[in-house]
Structure formats: C-alpha cells, structure tokens
Amino acid sequence: MSEECEDIDTHNIYINKNLPHDRMREEIKHELMHIINDDFYLDHHVNLVEQMVRRTCIDDAELEAIDFYHHYVSVL
After folding, report:
1. Which of 24, 29, 31 lies closest to 3, judged by CA?
2. With a threshold of 0.70, does the pTM exceed it?
3. Domains: count for the chain
4. What is the C-alpha R_g of the chain?
5. Domain range spanning residue 38?
6. What are phi and psi of 52, to 5 degrees?
7. Per-residue pLDDT of the chain in tens (76 residues, 90 and over written 9)
C-alpha cells in the first residue's frame, strides 16, 4: 500500500515485514509503479489500475535512480 504525503515528492510504502526478501522487493516495485504512474489521480476503477500496474514492469536499474529509505514499524 502506498500513500501520498503533503510533500509532493514524498510517499510512504507499507509492506509486511514478514514476507520473504524477494517478495518484499516485488511489493516495493509494484507500489513504486503506482507512484511513477501517478495513479493517485486516475479516475479509473481500482481493479483496472491494478491490472495496468501488474502488466507493467520496472527494471532494477530504474530503481537505482529513486532516492528512498526504509525502516521497520512494529504494529501491536
């Protein structure tokens, strides 16, 4: 799940920390595609937007140009 912040260049991505590393990476890439595509402003049904993102592919080299950091948040 990704969420837009007040700062237009800042987004939060939340993923399950118990996922295997490769699955975490795929989830992050999926959410980054939503951000890159600016999906927050589409008027399409959410299922259509998800289908469009699943059909697109982001290369690992493209991830190198994205400046982001991560940390773990424990939820009780």
Report:
1. 31
2. no
3. 1
4. 13
5. 2-63
6. -65, -40
7. 655 555 567 788 888 888 898 898 888 888 888 888 888 888 888 888 888 888 887 777 777 777 766 666 666 6
Reading phi first (left if > 0) and then psi (alpha if -120 to 50, else beta), residue 38 is in left
Q: Say if residues 28 and 13 touch (Cβ distance below 8 Å).
A: yes
What are the structure tokens assigned to 1, written together? 């799940």
Provide the CB-side half-sphere exposure for 26 (13 A, CA). 6
* 68 in a structural domain: no
Number of residues that this document lists for the chain = 76
Question: Could you tell me if residue 71 is inside a domain?
Answer: no
Q: Using CA of residue 34, residue 57, residue 13, residue 35, what is the dihedral sign? A: negative
